[in-house]
Specification:
Layout (H helix, E strand, L loop, with lengths): L2 H25 L5 H9 L1 H7 L15 E3 L6 E3 L23 H63 L18 E9 L3 E8 L4 E8 L12 E4 L7
Antiparallel strand pairs: 1-2, 3-4, 4-5, 5-6
Length: 235
């Protein structure tokens, strides 16, 4: 056999080896390029690189996928052309924004609740504020009555030593008027009695006490009597 015949035989044997490899690559056998990609990249990522391997009956994720109306292949939601059949994809209308009615309803409910909340606060304030003012006024009156009773004790102690009452508070030892309380007029004092009138701003109330011969007829000596400056109502 000549050299030319040996070369022809060698080429024939090589062609028989190449043909099965080419057919195996086309069918995606383990020895093919497709099989190498599946072994190397893994099943999930390999399938992503080969969209043709995706079944047309698989469920579609409407957020990222859609089906081609021509070949029913699953393609990307934003694709303009089907990569399987080359068909032009229709332009999908913009999704209608949902929940607008719920948002409006929620805003209306919040507005109504806020409106009635403001009304409720106003009603509570109309009830609480006058009661608070009345309580504060009663505290002012109680403060002046306490100062008058303490003044009576101080005057009696002074009378025991001097056989007379004094109009000067500084002579009554450690007696002091409460903060905010002042004499409405000078103390009227003598050998047999005294009277004093206190005021507490801004209450508009004055409290007086008379002892001995300074007590008006019909009044109980040593009892505080409080009156409103404007209305003259006793308290």
């Amino acid at each position: 056999m000549g050299a030319a015949d040996r070369d022809v035989g060698r080429m024939g044997r090589q062609s028989h080896k190449v043909a099965p490899l080419a057919r195996s690559r086309a069918r995606g056998r383990p020895g093919s390029a497709a099989g190498w990609r599946r072994r190397t990249l893994g099943g999930t990522f390999g399938d992503a690189l080969q969209p043709s391997l995706r079944s047309r009956d698989d469920p579609v994720n409407p957020a990222t996928e859609k089906k081609c109306p021509n070949c029913n292949a699953i393609i990307s939601f934003g694709a303009d052309v089907c990569p399987q059949c080359g068909a032009q994809q229709p332009v999908l209308p913009m999704a209608k924004v949902s929940g607008g009615g719920k948002v409006l309803k929620g805003c209306l409910i919040a507005t109504v609740v806020g409106f009635f909340g403001i009304i409720a606060i106003g009603i509570v304030a109309a009830i609480v504020i006058p009661k608070f003012a009345s309580t504060k006024l009663k505290a002012y009156v109680a403060e002046m009555k306490t100062d008058l009773r303490n003044l009576a004790w101080a005057e009696e102690a002074y009378h025991q030593s001097h056989q007379s009452y004094t109009a000067n508070i500084a002579e009554l030892g450690g007696y002091r008027l409460s903060n905010g309380v002042a004499l409405a007029k000078p103390i009227d004092a003598g050998a047999n009695g005294w009277s004093a009138t206190l005021r507490r701003d801004p209450s508009g109330i004055q409290c007086a006490m008379s002892v001995g011969d300074r007590a008006p007829a019909g009044d109980v000596s040593g009892t505080p009597v409080c009156t409103a400056v404007a209305g003259g109502q006793s308290r």
